[in-house]
Amino acid sequence: MTKSVEIASNSPVDRTAADRIEEGAERVKQATSHAVAGTKDAVDRAADRVEEGLHHATDKAAGAATRATEKAAEYSERGREAYDQAVDRAEDWMDQARDYVREKPLQSVAIALGAGWLLGRLLRR
């Protein structure tokens, strides 16, 4: 007759092994929780740095766009002023030419004929 040896579930040997397994499992849980918490903190810090970098880059881009807009407006105003001055000068020259023609009509016709003849000769070549 063979007798099998059974260890009772409440035996001190069984309880010690169970306790060690429970302790090991608890250590694994704590280590996992600690690792997850550390990783979460690291990810949060990295996300904060990325967010700060994006905010800084956005602020710089907005500043550059504002400066570019201001420069464009400045150049537009300068161009408008130059155009207005050119129009004023052209009108002044036209007024002077009209006044000259009124004061000296024969000389004006002679100058116009001479200029036309000279221009015709130059363009014919």
How would you describe what is shown here?
The termini are far apart. This protein has two helices and no strands. The chain has helices spanning 12-103, 105-124. The protein is mainly α and 125 residues long. It has one domain. Mean pLDDT is 87; it is low at 4-8.
Strand composition percent: under 5%
| Count of the separate structural domains | 1
Q: How large is the count of helical segments?
A: 2
Amino- and carboxy-terminal Cα gap: 137 Å
CA radius of gyration: 48 Å
- Low-pLDDT residue spans: 4-8
Shape: rod-shaped
H/E element order: HH
Biggest sheet record = none
Strand tally is: 0
Output mean pLDDT. 87
Q: Helical content, roughly?
A: over 70%
Helix-strand category: mainly alpha
The quaternary structure here is single chain
Task: List the main descriptive attributes of the protein structure presented here.
mainly alpha, 125 residues
In short:
With 125 residues, the chain is an all-alpha fold. Helix content is 90%, strand content 0%.
Task: List strands and helices in order, with pairings.
Blueprint: H1 12-103, H2 105-124
